[in-house]
Design brief:
This protein has 462 residues and is mainly alpha-helical. The protein contains 21 helices and 7 strands. Strand 4 and strand 5 form a beta hairpin. Helix 5 packs across helix 6 and helix 14 runs antiparallel to helix 15. The protein starts with a helix and ends with a helix.
Length: 462
């Protein structure tokens, strides 16, 4: 592993990409600590701490995915969630609207157009989220102290603060979106995923320190910590095993004769991932389940309060509903991302077929059948990993941090595996180029030597 890391830094292009990625992630983390005008960060931290003691809320969810930006009352408080939501909506619309579907199949130009629409959707969603968040914060107090500065709250009857907050939050989200796109284009890995990854990982040292203090003070018993460590190790191993797992369908390509020459032939496989949807199902399910809490914080209605109490995150009803929604989105997003009909048509065009299955419609049905079965295993795996924090809390009888298991650990491990695979791809490509260059040099030297031996001067000199 150490030798592999040393080889990574020997490749100039890869070294530049890694340093570029780290620099932009550092810019993002620095921006998290820039406080939004009109907000008292001390009061904001106290308010979020009170929410956590009551089981959390929609602000706690945003704070988790934004890497603590809401806790800091940052200009990046909305994080990258509006972009993720816009991307999911655009993926769904691409399947539902034929014009967008044709645009997606037009190649690079069509993808750029869809990305532009996604950016517009991100700004629109950011405006909605910004209005909701700023209006909510303006009405909240903690220990008889307003979260919003009195002068800002009174500016224009409060409308001025909402307008300023929406502009600031939209600009912050747009900047994060730009950082993510630059990392994807000129760095290593998926930029959006790495931004979420950086936000979660940046909070791990403080979580480990608070756990250490809990052990020293006797809050956590040694047996409980051993049980916690064993559970985390099991979850980590399970995530790596499933994320790397594939179902490989054998594919045979027929031989073709074109102008007297034989092409094609041979056997390969079609890899189907167990978890095609990735971390999208738990993220989307968490967002939807937090919606009643958002409504309860803005609208005082009895039925909303009853609904909020019914699906309390600490209760078993919430966990069951969470698992059901994860399963639904796992199937739904897999159907959006993977089209068996297109795969079967492409295989038939190039003379490929699955042994024992007729090309065309039968192949598409067979692929869909296999994909449905392995997605069931992926959905069960996602549900089990994401409800693990509640199991940990009940097993150790303490408030285990959310990022010690569940969605946080899933995101961290998945993004790390994806980034390592891309780095490995760059390394293999560089090694292949070096080998090709060395072979070309040897061939040129051999040709030159043969030419010198066959030249008239060499013959006369002999």
């Amino acid at each position: 592993m150490i030798a592999g890391l040393s080889n990574v830094w020997k490749i100039a292009e890869l070294r530049k990409r890694i340093l570029y990625t780290l620099a932009l992630l550092a810019v993002y983390r620095a921006g998290v600590f820039i406080t939004m005008p009109g907000i008292d960060p001390v009061a904001m931290k106290a308010y979020l701490a009170a929410l956590q003691s009551q089981g959390g809320g929609f602000l706690s969810l945003f704070n988790f995915f934004s890497g603590g930006a809401i806790e800091q009352a940052s200009i990046f408080a909305l994080g990258i969630m509006p972009y993720i939501t816009a991307s999911i909506i655009m993926s769904l619309l691409t399947v539902a609207i034929p014009t967008l579907e044709r645009l997606q199949k037009e190649g690079e130009q069509g993808r750029r157009k869809i990305n532009q629409y996604t950016r517009y959707g991100t700004i629109a969603i950011s405006i909605v989220h910004g209005v909701i968040m700023s209006t909510y914060l303006r009405s909240q107090t903690v220990q008889n102290q307003s979260i919003v500065n009195v002068d800002w709250a009174a500016w224009g009857g409060g409308v001025g603060f909402v307008l300023m907050a929406v502009i600031t939050l939209c600009a912050g989200t747009a900047f994060i979106m730009w950082l993510g796109e630059r990392i994807t284009e000129r760095g290593v890995g998926n930029g959006i995923s790495l931004i979420i990854f950086a936000g979660i990982v940046a909070r791990l040292p403080s979580a480990a320190y608070s756990t250490f203090l809990g052990i020293q003070s006797g809050t956590y018993a040694p047996v409980e910590m051993l049980l916690l460590g064993a559970m985390m190790l099991f979850i980590l191993t399970s995530i790596v095993f499933v994320e790397k797992g594939q179902r490989r369908l054998p594919v045979q390509y027929a031989k073709r004769v074109v102008q007297g020459k034989q092409y094609g032939g041979g056997a390969t496989h079609l890899p189907l991932k167990i978890n095609v949807a990735g971390v999208i199902p738990p993220i989307f399910a968490s967002t939807i389940l937090m919606f009643p809490m958002t409504l309860a914080s803005m609208v005082q209605a009895e039925w909303i309060e009853k609904l909020q109490a019914l699906i309390n995150p600490a209760g078993w009803r919430y966990q069951v509903l969470f698992a059901v929604m994860i399963t639904f989105f796992a199937y739904f997003y897999t159907a959006v991302q993977f089209n068996p009909v297109d795969v079967a048509d492409n295989m038939r065009k190039f003379g490929g077929f699955i042994p024992g299955v007729r090309p065309g419609k039968a192949t598409a049905e067979y692929i869909d059948y296999v994909l449905t079965r392995i997605t069931a295993g992926g959905a069960i795996y996602l549900s089990a990993v994401c409800v693990s924090p509640v199991l940990l809390q009940r097993m150790v009888s303490n408030q285990v941090p959310f990022y010690f298991g569940g969605t946080g650990l899933l995101i961290v491990v998945s993004v790390a595996l994806e980034t390592v695979e891309q780095i490995r791809g760059y390394t293999i490509s560089s090694q292949y180029e070096d080998v090709s260059a060395q072979a070309a040099v040897r061939i040129r030297a051999r040709v030159k030597a043969e030419q010198e031996q066959s030249s008239p001067h060499s013959g006369s000199s002999s």
